[in-house]
Prior knowledge:
alpha/beta, 2 domains, DUF4143
Amino acid sequence: MIDEWQEVPDLWDATREEVDKNTKSGLFILTGSSTPAHKGVLHSGAGRIVKLRMSTMTLFEFGNSAGILSLKDLLLDEIQARYVDELNFKELAYLIVRGGWPKNIEANFDDCEALPRSYIDSILESKLLDENNTRYNSNYIKLILKSLARNVSTTVSERSIINDISQNEVDSISRPTLSKYLDFLNNMFLFNNLEPYSLNPRSSLRVKQLEKRYFCDPSLACALLDLTPNKIMGDLNLYGLLFEGLVIRDLKVYAQANDAKVYHYQDYLDNELDAVIEFKNGEWCAIEIKLGLNQVEQAAKQLNKAIDAITRSKNKAPINKCIIVGFGNLVYKRKEDGIIVIPINALKD
């Protein structure tokens, strides 16, 4: 295993050449936290090297999820009711701020925000150079990241980000500069955005094409906004948006393990799905994400409305529809509409 290989980009071609000499699989694992700064052309590695997106740890990997329901179980018609220990208000806030960082596994409630903050600080204090040795302004980086944190779990546009910065910060930023800086930050793997779900080309529904914006870990949004578990618990709306980011982080990891993909859905008739899981066999699952069980009825109406519009417009119906909640002690299927209610700490890959 070679960590941060991008610091010495020639390692890529050296690895490729070594793989050509030895046909065994799994000889090398190259890990990196950014795109390599390399002026030449790197061989693609096609047929030799498989690229995988890394993530911070999920609740299941941390031992905070019982893992009684696998993502692949959502391909089944029958879901058995199962109990799980319920997370409380304080515990879930802690899990969001702590994040999925391995070094934070023993962090306590009062200092769990320290490591994510140090990660943001290390980014802002680094050289901030791209592959062409173009230097990026750390103040602009901070402005953009803070705006994205204020707009986490939304489809905020670049124009809206510029307006948000103008309203909340002393400085401003131009559209070309913002686009350039977002590309740079994407290459640092800081984001975990969801692309829009594509319907049948014959569908009469017009689907919105903006990505839904998330950080690679919800703790980074907390760090940028100087949030602690106590502060999150004082703002239910923000709590819900950050919880959605945690769910998306875990869903994308679980989906990757099952060769599935995660999208979001919004159309111009105000139908919306927080997440769409598309499996390799073409089946898909519709998902809403809500913090508490008291929001399940509202989420069910939104979910059924969106699915009805999608299926009436010449699109395949989902194999299952789910509501993932932060608080709850039971995985169960509602008799009235077949929606599966799943506490987040019941899931695994």
